[in-house]
């Protein structure tokens, strides 16, 4: 199992962030948290890095189902989605989401499988839609 669901986009960082937010919304996710790693590391450590944004995405009905199976699952929520500049290619932006199957693997709770499968379908649909939106008309 891979740790992420991901894609690379040939676009600006701002466009990738906007499209990622829209794709998440389309799949029923809201962004609860946002961490600007570039700004945080600069402010706290004086260190420079490429654009790197962590979005904490949550689909409330699915989160509710997961918490009802295992109250500790909140330790793994919300689902992190990272939008980051590709250090190897300055024309590329990488969008990657935590693989929801990790919820089952980490907890060993088979009752989470259905929820993880549904979150995976929705998150993969969001990631896939970024490529479709990027296709030339």
Automatic annotation (TrEMBL):
> A Pfam family matched by this chain, by name?
DUF302
- Give all residue intervals belonging to the DUF302 domain: 35-100
The name under which this protein is listed is DUF302 domain-containing protein
Q: Which Gene3D superfamilies match?
A: TT1751-like domain (3.30.310.70)
What InterPro entries does the record point to? DUF302, TT1751-like_sf, UCP021774
């Amino acid at each position: 199992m891979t740790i992420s669901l991901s894609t690379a986009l040939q676009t600006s960082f701002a466009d990738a962030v906007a499209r990622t937010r829209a794709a998440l919304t389309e799949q029923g996710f809201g962004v609860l948290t946002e961490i600007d790693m570039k700004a945080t590391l600069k402010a706290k450590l004086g260190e420079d890095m490429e654009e790197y944004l962590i979005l904490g995405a949550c689909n409330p009905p699915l989160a509710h189902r997961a918490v009802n199976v295992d109250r500790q699952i909140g330790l793994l929520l919300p689902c992190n989605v990272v939008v980051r500049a590709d250090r190897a290619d300055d024309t590329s932006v990488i969008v990657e989401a935590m693989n929801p199957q990790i919820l089952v693997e980490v907890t060993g709770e088979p009752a989470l499988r259905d929820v993880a499968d549904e979150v995976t379908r929705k998150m993969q649909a969001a990631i896939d839609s970024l490529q479709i939106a990027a296709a030339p008309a």
